[in-house]
Every structure is written in structure tokens, then in C-alpha cells.
Amino acid sequence: MNDKFDELAKGLAQSVTRRGALKKFGVELGAVALALLGLTNKAKAGNGACRGSGDPCLHSHQCCSNFCFREGKQGKGFCL
Predict the structure, then answer these.
(1) Contact 40, 33 (CB under 8 A)
(2) Strand 77-79 and strand 56-57: pairing?
(3) Do 3 and 41 belong to one domain?
């Protein structure tokens, strides 16, 4: 356990150039954007039964986002 902490501390202590930091940041930002766009499109395309944002729902599993907002137990909700 101490070895892992020491390795982590050494890794954080190493200097990083601005170019290297910006490159990593850009790659990670691009990966997040692709993941967000790709996952929502695949979820809608792969599951014809899931409902998009704003569509009516009764249960979370009906929504592509897996989140159905309902105000009361009896009331119908909508997908977020």
C-alpha cells in the first residue's frame, strides 16, 4: 500500500510542460464529448423502446437516460 502511495506522489511531483498538459486536456475533453454524443445516439438507436428527453414515462427504465422524473406516485412523469 505504501509503495502505491509513493508511486502516486512521485508521479504527481514530476513536472509537466504546458504543451503536454494542454495535449492531455484536449484529448480527454474530446473523449468526453465523443462519449456523451456516442452513448446517447447508440442508446436511442439500439433500443427502440427507450424514450428521449421530455417524453412521457412511468418508470426510469423506459427512458434512454434511465431517469424518469415523476412528481407523485400516481402521476405520469417525463424523461430527463
Answers:
(1) no
(2) antiparallel
(3) yes
CA distance 44 to 28: 24
| Residues 40, 64 within the same domain | no
In this structure, what are the phi and psi dihedrals at residue 56, rounded to the nearest 5 degrees? -70, 150
Look at the chain and report how many structural domains it folds into: 2
**Residue-level pLDDT, tens digit, the chain, 80 residues:** 678 888 888 877 877 788 888 888 888 888 888 777 765 555 444 556 688 888 888 887 888 888 888 876 666 788 88
Q: Return d(Cα 51, Cα 14) in angstroms, integer.
A: 47
Full-prediction pTM beyond 0.90? no
67 in Cβ contact with 60 (< 8 Å): yes
